[in-house]
Amino acid sequence: MKNIIIHPHKVKRNDREKIKNQKGCVIWLTGLSGSGKSTIANELEYELNKMKYHTYLLDGDNIRSGLNSDLSFNENDRKENIRRISEVAKLFVDSGIITITAFISPFIKDREKAKKIIGVENFIEVFIDTPLEECIKRDPKGLYKKALDGKIKNFTGIDQKYEKPINPNIHIDTIKEDLNISINKIINYLDKKGYINVKQY
Ligand SMILES: Nc1ncnc2c1ncn2[C@@H]1O[C@H](COP(=O)(O)OS(=O)(=O)O)[C@@H](OP(=O)(O)O)[C@H]1O
Ligand SMILES: Nc1ncnc2c1ncn2[C@@H]1O[C@H](COP(=O)(O)OP(=O)(O)O)[C@@H](O)[C@H]1O
């Protein structure tokens, strides 16, 4: 970057984390529309907040209606969507926040790039594994019906692909597990890896 000189800040990530009693990280939820990303992300943030951890949830509502309102759902725009979200999430990590992202993020190469931008040590990939047939059955926003009727183009799982994570840090099966089990699984992972310390509460 020509003529861009990064100014060293006196207050570092570690200083911000120390007063928050936690480590910044990104809990990256990926899965089909209707798989349960928003439901799980909301409940997870609620539980962490109750435990007095500092969190922020990035999802479609606050990103696709604001920062990324210029982007569509073709492959290139989804790539740019994920790139910008990753850069924002990286700043949240630097501020020491436990950041939860809830985006379909359907392509492996875009999620790999997200991991690279955010840093592998800060990135927790969570696969919300719900079969397409179940998502179509749930259809919480009526979007699958529209896509199957040909009224929405490039819909993930219908006429655009979803590439499953090969080796996610956490695998959540929303058919076999209820919401509480899924939340506990993620909280236990954060605790085990030292992002939070459940014992102190
Ligand atoms: N064509 C198409 N395909 C998939 N989803 C669509 C589409 N058009 C609109 N929507 C709505 O947008 C939400 C997905 O946005 P994301 O930013 O998560 O998508 S992506 O990560 O860029 O693939 C998605 O939200 P979720 O249902 O919560 O996943 C939909 O509500
Ligand atoms: N175990 C589960 N975990 C999460 N959601 C579930 C589960 N079982 C059923 N659901 C339902 O599935 C739907 C998922 O919708 P949503 O969270 O909006 O998905 P997404 O954000 O991935 O589009 C909700 O209506 C939710 O109540």
TrEMBL record:
**Start and end of every APS kinase domain?**
23-173
* Transmembrane segments annotated in the record for this chain: none
Q: Write out the similarity annotation.
A: Belongs to the APS kinase family.
- What role does this protein play? Catalyzes the synthesis of activated sulfate.
Primary gene name = cysC
The residues responsible for catalysis, as annotated, are 105
Q: Which residues are noted in the entry as ATP-binding?
A: 31-38
Pfam families the UniProt entry points to: APS_kinase (PF01583)
Write down the top EC class of this protein: transferase
* Entry EC number(s): 2.7.1.25
What protein does this entry describe?
A: Adenylyl-sulfate kinase
**Keywords associated with the record:** ATP-binding, Kinase, Nucleotide-binding, Phosphoprotein, Transferase
Pathway(s):
Sulfur metabolism; hydrogen sulfide biosynthesis; sulfite from sulfate: step 2/3
InterPro entries in the record, alphabetically? APS, APS_kinase_dom, P-loop_NTPase
What are the recorded GO MF terms, alphabetically? adenylylsulfate kinase activity
Q: Which reaction does it catalyse?
A: adenosine 5'-phosphosulfate + ATP = 3'-phosphoadenylyl sulfate + ADP + H(+)
Q: Which organism is it from?
A: Caminibacter mediatlanticus TB-2
